[in-house]
Design a protein that fits this description.
Keywords: Phosphoprotein. This protein is an alpha/beta fold. It has eleven helices and eleven strands. Strands 6, 7, 8, 9, 10 and 11 form a six-stranded antiparallel sheet that branches. Helix 8 crosses helix 9. The longest helix has 32 residues.
Length: 318
C-alpha cells in the first residue's frame, strides 16, 4: 500500500502533536499540520499532492465545515478523502460534516482502534483511486480516448447536486451514526428503471448529466426533510432521511415524476431515452437491531427491486 501524504488541521497544537504520534505509530509518517483554515488553504494552494485531509470541526474563524466546502471547490481536491474530527457525537454534527463533502468522521479523544480502522479504509480508497487513474492514463495513451471510461455499475459522484455525497461517504455516515443514533432514520431507494438503456445510448458526460438531473429533482422534492443521498451505481440512488417520510412511496414517485415531466421535451430533443422512475418503500431499523448500520442501504435497494418486480405499474414514465 502506498504512502499517504496527510494534512491535519486543528487549532490545538498539543492535539496535533498527539495525532502525529498516533498516526506515525500506525505507519503514517508523512503528516503536515496547520493551526487555522487560512494556513491550511495557503498550504493547499502552494502545493498539490496531499492524499488525505484531517479537519477539526471547531477550528476558530472559518470552521471545519466551511473549510471542507472550500477545499472541495479547489482544483485537484474534489475526490481527496477528507476526515472530520470532533468532540461532538450529535447526529446533526455528523450529518453536517458529510453534507459538506466529508468522506469520513471520527470523534475525539483519539481511539487507536477507531483511527486505525478509519485510516485503513482511507488508505484502501486512495490506493484504488490511484489504480484507476493509472489504468485510465494507460488506456488514454494507447487509444487516445478523451474521457475516463465509466462502468454502468460504478457509483458515479454527483458533486454539483446539494446534499448528494459519494456512496462511500454515505456508508461512512451510517457507521459514524451507529445503531442507536440511526433509530428514527429511514432509507429509501430510487431507480431510473431504464438507466441501462440511457447508458448505452449516450456518452459518459450525458449519462452523468441525466443522473444529476434526476438526483436534483429528488433532492428538491425532499428539501423539507433532513437527508443525504448518493448514487449507488446502476441508475440507483439511496437516501437516508433524519426521520420517517410522511408520504407513501407511490405518492412520492408521482410527485417526482410530475417534476421530471417538465423536461420531457428536452429529453426528446436530445434524443435521450426518457427516464422511468421507480421508488422503493422506506426501510427503518429498530432501536435494538443487531444488523450493521450499513445493511440499511442494502435493504432499501432490495425493497426497491422487489417492488419493481411485483408491481410493473409502479414504474412512472415521464
Amino acid at each position: 500500500m502506498g504512502i499517504l501524504r496527510i494534512l491535519a488541521v486543528d487549532d490545538d497544537p498539543v492535539f496535533l502533536m498527539l495525532l502525529q504520534h498516533v498516526l506515525g505509530r500506525l505507519g503514517y509518517d508523512d503528516v503536515e499540520v496547520a493551526g487555522t483554515a487560512a494556513a491550511a488553504l495557503e498550504r493547499l494552494q502552494e502545493e498539490e499532492g496531499f492524499d488525505c485531509l484531517l479537519l477539526d470541526f471547531d477550528i476558530p474563524g472559518v470552521d471545519g465545515i466551511q473549510l471542507c466546502r472550500r477545499i472541495r471547490q479547489m482544483q485537484g481536491y474534489a475526490d481527496v478523502p477528507i476526515l472530520m474530527m470532533s468532540n461532538a457525537h450529535a447526529a446533526s454534527v455528523i450529518e453536517a460534516a458529510f453534507a459538506a463533502g466529508a468522506t469520513d468522521y471520527f470523534t475525539k479523544p483519539l481511539d487507536d482502534l477507531e483511527l486505525r480502522a478509519r485510516m485503513g479504509m482511507t488508505a484502501r480508497l486512495v490506493e484504488e483511486r490511484r489504480r484507476r487513474a493509472m489504468l485510465a492514463d494507460r488506456v488514454h495513451a494507447q487509444l487516445g480516448l478523451p474521457d475516463e471510461p465509466i462502468r454502468f455499475a460504478d457509483p458515479i459522484p454527483l458533486r454539483d447536486v446539494p446534499d448528494v455525497v459519494e456512496y462511500e461517504a454515505l456508508e461512512n455516515y451510517l457507521l459514524a451514526l451507529g445503531r442507536s443514533k440511526l433509530h428514527g432514520h429511514a432509507a429509501i431507494a430510487f431507480r431510473i428503471g431504464n438507466a441501462e438503456e440511457i447508458f448505452a445510448a449516450t456518452d459518459a458526460i450525458c449519462y452523468a448529466d441525466v443522473l444529476a438531473h434526476v438526483a436534483s429533482i429528488i433532492a428538491d422534492q425532499l428539501k423539507d426533510h433532513e437527508f443525504l443521498m448518493a448514487h449507488a451505481g446502476r441508475g440507483e440512488f439511496v437516501c437516508i432521511t433524519a426521520r420517517h417520510l410522511p408520504v407513501q412511496a407511490h405518492v412520492l414517485a408521482q410527485e417526482i415524476a410530475a417534476r421530471l415531466a417538465d423536461r420531457a421535451r428536452i429529453y426528446a430533443q436530445l434524443g435521450v431515452p426518457r427516464p422511468v422512475l421507480q421508488v422503493g418503500d422506506p426501510m427503518t431499523t429498530g432501536l435494538f437491531s443487531r444488523s450493521a448500520p450499513s445493511d440499511l442501504l442494502g435493504r432499501a435497494r432490495r425493497a426497491l427491486r422487489n417492488a419493481a418486480a411485483r408491481q410493473i405499474r409502479g414504474e412512472v414514465v415521464v
